[in-house]
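Why NmrA-like domain-containing protein? Reviewers of the renewal asked for a concrete example.
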Amino acid sequence: MVKVAIAGGSGQVAKEVIDVLLATGKHEITVLSRNEAPLEDSLPGLHWRVVNYDNQADLVEALRGTHTLLSFLQLFSDPEATVQKKLIDAAVAAGVRRFAPSEYGSTGTVNMPWWGGKERTREYLKKVNENGKILEYTFFQPGLFLDYLAFPYKTTKHIDPLQTVFDLENCRAILVEGHEDAIMTLTAAADVAAIVTHAVECEAEWPEIGGISGNRMTFSQIIALGEKVRGRSFTIDQVKSQDLEAGSLNTSWALEKRHQAVSEEQSSDFAKKVSIGILLSSIKGAWDVSDELNQLFPDHKFEKADHFLESVWKGKP
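Here is what the prediction returned.
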């Protein structure tokens, strides 16, 4: 049994992981939150601890006896990683053994300024251990959730559908001209939750980079698979990298569904930035995720993109 603390436990990805951790019946799990638990989050076996991230003593006390601390703090509202750094300091002071910062995406952050907090956290953790390992940590990096290619259909209990540059509903996609072979790693949310749970239970030392590679595919392979499961050709908007670098997105369509952490006022501009950022970062290798945790847990069978998408889209108009 491991005592696990979850920061940002009311988030959608956090809830997917919490469900799997609870299902094992092995762990004492405490959610750290600024607010009292909503009624729907009051689950058997799940403790809820209200904390003040500006009160170091309170944070340290909340983390006493914790073995593993998983962070799902929302990065959009903490671009300087100020809150997450406070969490790390408290973890060190409380003697927490393991920590996983809020990641759950690409390996690189180039051209994705909304994830600048990840880089600041990564650098901060290096400084924590610069004179010897004080805090064991890993960066859980699964690439893009495979579930997003099911948009607008929901394929998980908690994670809302989200649009991407691969629009299987309308049989269209956006790619960068001359970069059809750019890599995108796609991993099902269920696999991510399972691997995180395996990692919590694993006694071996965590690798610093926790790559989780469900499906490693090129843009052209994803589009070809989309055409196969939808039974029709896709309309492809090809954009020039120099236009993207200049902040211009010359396409016939745009992302409309906003992330739940983005305000309605920010939605339109942010959707454009996300499209540009994902396209540019993909041609620079940011979504070509490694597979350290695949190797650590070789018995885990990952959901394959073809099987997943065929099951989602079968019979859909």
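The first helix runs from residue 12 to 24. This is the kind of structural detail the renewal will allow us to pursue systematically.
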